[in-house]
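Researcher: Please generate the 3D structure of the following complex. Treat every line as part of one assembly.
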Amino acid sequence: MAGNSFGTLYKLTSFGESHGKAVGGVIEGVLPGTVIDEEYVQSELDRRRPGQSAITTPRDEKDRVEFLSGIFEGKATGTPIGFVIWNKDQRSKDYGNIKEVYRPSHADYTYQSKYGIRDYRGGGRSSARETIARVVAGSIAKLMLKQWGITINAYTSKVGNLKLEKSYKELDLNQTEENIVRCPDQEMAAKMIEYIDQVRRDKDSVGGVISCVVGQVPVGLGEPVFSKLHAMLGSAMLSINAVKGFEYGLGFDATHLMGSQHNDEFYMDGDRVRTRTNRSGGIQGGISNGEDIYFNVAFKPIATVLKEQTTVNRSGEEIKSTTKGRHDPCVLPRAVPIVEAMTAMVLIDAILMNKMYQ
Amino acid sequence: MAGNSFGTLYKLTSFGESHGKAVGGVIEGVLPGTVIDEEYVQSELDRRRPGQSAITTPRDEKDRVEFLSGIFEGKATGTPIGFVIWNKDQRSKDYGNIKEVYRPSHADYTYQSKYGIRDYRGGGRSSARETIARVVAGSIAKLMLKQWGITINAYTSKVGNLKLEKSYKELDLNQTEENIVRCPDQEMAAKMIEYIDQVRRDKDSVGGVISCVVGQVPVGLGEPVFSKLHAMLGSAMLSINAVKGFEYGLGFDATHLMGSQHNDEFYMDGDRVRTRTNRSGGIQGGISNGEDIYFNVAFKPIATVLKEQTTVNRSGEEIKSTTKGRHDPCVLPRAVPIVEAMTAMVLIDAILMNKMYQ
Amino acid sequence: MAGNSFGTLYKLTSFGESHGKAVGGVIEGVLPGTVIDEEYVQSELDRRRPGQSAITTPRDEKDRVEFLSGIFEGKATGTPIGFVIWNKDQRSKDYGNIKEVYRPSHADYTYQSKYGIRDYRGGGRSSARETIARVVAGSIAKLMLKQWGITINAYTSKVGNLKLEKSYKELDLNQTEENIVRCPDQEMAAKMIEYIDQVRRDKDSVGGVISCVVGQVPVGLGEPVFSKLHAMLGSAMLSINAVKGFEYGLGFDATHLMGSQHNDEFYMDGDRVRTRTNRSGGIQGGISNGEDIYFNVAFKPIATVLKEQTTVNRSGEEIKSTTKGRHDPCVLPRAVPIVEAMTAMVLIDAILMNKMYQ
Amino acid sequence: MAGNSFGTLYKLTSFGESHGKAVGGVIEGVLPGTVIDEEYVQSELDRRRPGQSAITTPRDEKDRVEFLSGIFEGKATGTPIGFVIWNKDQRSKDYGNIKEVYRPSHADYTYQSKYGIRDYRGGGRSSARETIARVVAGSIAKLMLKQWGITINAYTSKVGNLKLEKSYKELDLNQTEENIVRCPDQEMAAKMIEYIDQVRRDKDSVGGVISCVVGQVPVGLGEPVFSKLHAMLGSAMLSINAVKGFEYGLGFDATHLMGSQHNDEFYMDGDRVRTRTNRSGGIQGGISNGEDIYFNVAFKPIATVLKEQTTVNRSGEEIKSTTKGRHDPCVLPRAVPIVEAMTAMVLIDAILMNKMYQ
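Model: Done. Output below.
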C-alpha cells in the first residue's frame, strides 16, 4: 500500500516516470477467456497520446503497448497481465533547469520534500504520462464490460467559461470523437477549439469539466458503507492529474433543492423497478439502481504555462522562471479516455466484487 | 474487503444497523500511549446526536460510547479498540410500513436488490446512524492529531440558496459552535436556522454544503499516484450519507481559470517554502505542501420528507406513500462533526503511512 | 493493516484482551440469507471454553456470544456481523505480580518493547482468549460451508511423545468428540488423558500436534502465486497461539522421497479426474484438486508452568518467579475447534474469491 | 487481491509465465535514497538461475534484470520500481505434449479447472520461473536490511535422507556458497551432491529441507494477532513452489517437550534483555525478541521426473506419459536464494510497519 495500486479484484499496479525507460503495470482480475483485442487497446492509447491534434502538445509519443504475460493465443488466462510502454520522445535536456527550481503548482516541491530525492525530468512520477497505464488497464476493463452490455461515454462539457448547458440526454454521444476537443456538440466544440488555440498562443493553459455517463448498469454494484460506488468513482477521478472536484447526479446543484424536488419517484417499467427522474445519478445508498450513472470531473488549468513566474529554488532563493518545452494548453481532450478508463476499472471491480453474493 | 473498513494503518471497521442492538466498530492504529479522553469522544458524539436542537430530529438518542478493549489505565495500548453504542430510542413500529415499500431516493430498493434481504427498520445499515462509529474513530484521530498541532474545522457554508460568500480566512472558525446550524457567521446562521425551520414546518428537507479547513499540516502527506491525499479525502467524504460532491482548493471554480491565474507562486517565509496564494488547497501532486487544506462537501436534501410521494412496493405495485416518523429537515448541522471525523482519519492515516519514509 | 483482520472477502476483525471488558469482532462476507444458528455457534464456543473438562484450566468462563448487528429475523443480511463475548471470570489480582515481571516464553517482554505499554493482566491481547472471536467467525463459516457440503475435522494426533500413527483414513473422525482430549482413537485418547493429567500434577505443560482433514472440497480454490491455498492455511494456523509449525500432505516426510515415490498419478473416476494417491494433500500448484486436504499443526507446550523459573523484571533485575493461577497443562483439546474455525474461514474466503471466475 | 502481490508496505506485484515474453514485477516501499546495486541483484539472480552447476537443470537462462523505473542516478526515488527479465531460452516445443496431458503432481489440472484456459508451455504461471521476480525484490530488500545490520543466511540442511544434524550455531554459514548444493558443511555437501547426481542419472527427483537464520534482528517486529512475524514468514515460505511445510524455533520437535523444558529463561546481557536458550526461535507472541530467528522449510521432490507415469488427458482418457525436457533433480540449491529473498521481504515489511509506532 504505497499508492500505486488501484482496485481490489480488478487491480492495476502501475509504475513509471515521464523520462524513465518505460511506464507500465500489472493488471489482475482479467477474467480468463477474455479476448484481448490489442488494436482496441492501442486505439484507446491513441486517444490519449500527445501530438494527436493541433490543440495538444506537439510531443510525438507513439505509446505502443507491449504485453508481456497473462495472454495466451489472444486470450487472457487469468494470470496477471504485465505490460510496458517504452518512453521514446523524451527531450530530457528541456527539463534540465527544473532540477533546481520548484515550478509553481507542480509537484516538484512536494515530491522533493516527501522523498528527499526526485527524478525531476518531465515531472518524473508526477507526470500525467503515468496515466498511460490506466488507459491500458481501463481499455481491457472496457472489453470485459461489453459482455454485460455496459456503456461508458465521457466528453468535454466545459472549457474555461464555455459550458455545454445541455444534459447528456440531449446530446448524441456518438458525436464525441468527431472533433478534437471531444465535445459531442459540434457547435460548442468549434468554440472550445478556437478558445484553446487562443490560450495556446497566449502561452497559457485553461481548465474545464469532463462529464461521463455509464449506461446499462446492473442493479446492485457498490459496497457500502465505505466503498459506495460513487465513493470509488470519486476516488478514481480525484486520483487523475489536475482533477479538483467530483460530483455525481445533480451534485452541487442538489444542494439548492428541497427533498420533495430532489427525490426520484419509483415506477414500474414492465416488471422492472425504475425511477421517473434520475437526480440521484443512478446510485442510491452507494449501490447502483440500474439507471444511468452520470458525473462531472473538474480539471484545473495545468500548471505548465510558458510565461514568466516567480518561484523558489532548492537553495531557498526566490527567482524568476520561465518554463520551456512543449505542453498541452488544455488537458481535457486527452483526459476523456482517462476518465473512461478509470470508470471502467471501478465498474468491473464492482461487478467482480458483487459476484460473491451470487 | 466488503466495504466496512476505512483506512490502512489507521483503520475503522464498523458495524451496526439503525434499529439493531448496537452500532460500533474496531479501531486499529491508535498509537500506544495516546490518552483516550472519553469525555472528549462523548462531546463529539453529542455534536452528532439527534435531538440536540430545535432544527434536528426530535429522536432523543443518548449515544453513549462504551469502550471494550485496547485501553488500559486511560491510555491506548496499541491493540485494537473495540467499542459499542447501544441503540435505545428505536421506535421500530414507526417503520413497519417500509417493510414492503421502497421509499423514493432511499436505499431500500438497492439493498433489497443487492442482498435479497434487508433489515428495513429505519433504513438498517444504510441509515446515517452508522456514522456514530465514524465520529468515535474520528475523535480519537483528532486526539492524536493534537500532538502534531494539526487543526480541523468544518462548518455549514450553504443551506439551500443561503450561501456564505466569505472565504474561511474571513471567518472566525471559533464561532462555529455558537449556533445550532454550525455556521461561523452569526448573521448567516440566523437566516439558515430560520430557513430550516420553515422547511421543517413544510414537512420537507433541504441540502447544503459543508466546508472544512485543515491547518498546520505537515509537508509530505499523501501517497501518489492512486492514494493522493485529496483522493483519500474525497473518498472519505463521498462515503458519508447524502454526499453528492467534493471539491478542494478552488474546485469547480478552477475550471474557469487560466494557468497563469490559478498557479500559486512560491516564496520564502524565513527558511520555509510557502505559496503566496493557495488556490491549490494545500495539496500539490497529491501531497500536502504545508498550506491550509480546504474543501467543500455537497449534501443533497435527505430523502425523508413527510409529504405524499408515488413509489412502488416489493410486489411491484405503484402506490402512494407518506413517510411518518421523525427526521432531520437538514442534516448539515449534525454532519459537521462527521466531516471533521473523516478528515481526521484520513490525516492520521497519511501521517502513519508517511512514517515509513522517516 | 495492524494485524487484527483475517481474510479478504470473508473477513474477521477482532478485538479484546484477556481481562478487558470483552472480546469480540466484526465479520464481513457472510452471505445474505445464511441462517445464523446461534446454538451451533455457542456449541463451538463450548468446545473451546475453559473449565470444560478435568484436563483443561478450571477457569469457568461461560463465553456467551452476543450478536449486535448483521442478522435480521435469524438470517444474515450481508451487512457486517458485530459480536461481543463479555469477560466475566477474570481474577485480575492473580496476575498482579506479572505487571513487573517478564514471564519466560510469554509475550510480556515483546509487547512491552514494541508498544511501550501493555495490559499485563492475563497476557492482555496476547492471551489465547482472543481466539474466541475466531471460533465465532469460524463457526459461521462452517454454517456457510455446509451448503457446499464441505466437511472439516480436526483432532489431537500427538501429545508429547504419544503419537497416533494411523492416518486419518484409518480413523473414525466421528469419534473425536467422544473423549475430552479430542483424539478419535479411544485407546490413544485414554493414554493421552492420563499423560496430561500427570503433567498437570507435575505443574508443567506439554505440546502436541493437531491434524485436520477437509473433505468434499471443490476443485479450483486458492489464488496463486502468493495466496496459494496452503499458504493461506499455513498463515492461519501459524497465527494461532503456541503454534510452531505447519505441514500439509506428506509435509516434512515428503523431503525424504523421490519424485517417482511422491507423485500422485491421475485416473478417471467416472467422468471425474482424481488421483490414486494423495500425497499432495489435495492441493497442487496452490489450488485445490478435489481430493481431501489434510495438514498437521505443531503446538509447543504453553509457557505457563507453575514451577519456579529465572527471569528478569522491567527494572532489569534477574529474579526468581513462580507463576500462580489457573492454566491448561495442554492446549490441544481446546485448540481443536480453533484449528477448525481458522480452516473454515480460509475455505469460505477462497470460495468467495473463486466466484469472480464464475 | 488475486494473489500476485506480496507484502503490505514493502510490496512485490509479480507477473510472468515460464514461456511468455518476460517475467517481472513492480516493487513498492523501497526507501528513497537506497542505493540500488544492480550487480548485487544480478548476483542473487545468478544464484537462482538454471544451468549454474552440474546438479541443476542444463537450461541456460541468463536472467538479466532490466529496471524500468523508480531509480534515478543509481538511487531509489520512492516511486515504484518496475522490472523485467526477458525469457530467452524457452524451447516451447519440448512442452507441446503437455498441452493435452495433465502431468502428475503438477498444476496442469488445477489451473485448467480453475481458469478454464492455461498457458501450458513449461507450466506457465505455475512454473518456478516466477520466483525470479521474488529474487529481484528480495535482493533489494536485502540491500535495505543492511542499514539495520540484519543478516539472512539460508542453506540446504537436508536432501533425501541426508540430514545435517548440526545446529546453525555449529556451522560456519560463510561456507554455504563454497559448494554447489549450498550446504555449509563441506563433508555433508559432498554426500548430497553425489546423491543428487545419482538421482539425476536415475531420471528422478528428490526433496529436502532448507534452513534459514536471521541475525541481528531488532526487537518489536511483527503485528499480532493475525500478522505475527512467524505467520508472515510461514506464508512467504509456503508460497514458494514445492514447499510442503514450515516450522520455526524447535518447530515440530517442540511438540515432544514439556513447558519447563521448552521455556527460554530471560537474563540481562548488560542492559539488554536476552534469553539464555532460544527454543522460541527469536519470536514470542508473534513479535521478534532480538534473538536469532531460525526456521526450516520442507521441499517435496519436484514433480518432473523423466520416467513413465500413468495419468489422464483433457479428453478424460487414461494414458501413459513420459516427460521430456530439462529439469532439476533437486531444487534445493537454487531455492536457497529464494528462501532468503522471501525472508528479506517479510523482514523489511515488518520494519516499515513497525515505524508507525516510532
